[in-house]
Amino acid sequence: MRQRFLIDSADAFPMGEGVAVTVNGKSLVIIHTAAGFFAVLNHCPHMGLSLDNGTVVGKVLVCLWHGAQFDLATGACLRWAANEPPPEAIGETRRPLITFPIIVEDGQVVVEMEVMSSE
Ligand code: FES
After folding, report:
1. How far is it, in rounded angstroms, from Cα 21 to Cα 103?
2. Residue 20: CATH number of its domain
């Protein structure tokens, strides 16, 4: 079941920066860009490190730790970490960022997330 979670006022999210928030027990990064707001799990698919200190370039998030790049809209990995060959070089698949639907309603940021029906 999909549930909506009110996060904060849109004004709380500076343009071009990631802000870590906890939503339903999960650490997310909310990113405000010129193209709108994005919400992703605060967990880099490379080594699982946090993403809230990454650099935002347009709709691309660059992980602070090893430079992997992700499309914020789709979660697709555009460039793998600079410190190792891409997963496809060893027959694996690049893992994407986990993204969440996000909307701004009446100046408030709202994230949608799947929850267990008993939550
Ligand atoms: S942890 Fe993000 S690129 Fe390595």
Report:
1. 15
2. 2.102.10.10
